């Protein structure tokens, strides 16, 4: 599994990158997932925007969230993804792409 963590005009600390990798490793990831990309950037004056991108069942999964801190954004993103994995086990979701956006306004 390749995990890319990118800060867009934002320096991400090694401890945050380790935290994010730990959150991914705690998830029950399907074997077919080969790559996950996280892109973090500032959103507005004080919020952080995190974009999660992967492929699942040959379909794109994109999760966009905003939060007050990078850690909150990571937690929120992984909760949404883990919820998606739980639903995947209960019904067939192979026929659609998933683009999930959760922005505070």
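^ Assign residues to that structure.
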């Amino acid at each position: 599994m390749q995990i890319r963590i990118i800060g867009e005009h934002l320096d991400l600390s090694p401890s945050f990158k380790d935290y994010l990798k730990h959150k991914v490793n705690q998830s029950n990831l399907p074997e077919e997932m080969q790559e996950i990309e996280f892109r973090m950037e500032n959103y507005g004056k004080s919020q952080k925007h995190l974009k999660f991108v992967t492929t699942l069942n040959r379909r794109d999964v994109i999760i966009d969230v905003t939060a007050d801190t990078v850690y909150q954004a990571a937690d929120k993103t992984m909760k949404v993804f883990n919820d998606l994995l739980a639903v995947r086990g209960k019904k067939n979701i192979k026929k659609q792409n998933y683009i999930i956006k959760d922005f505070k306004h």
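The mean pLDDT is 83.
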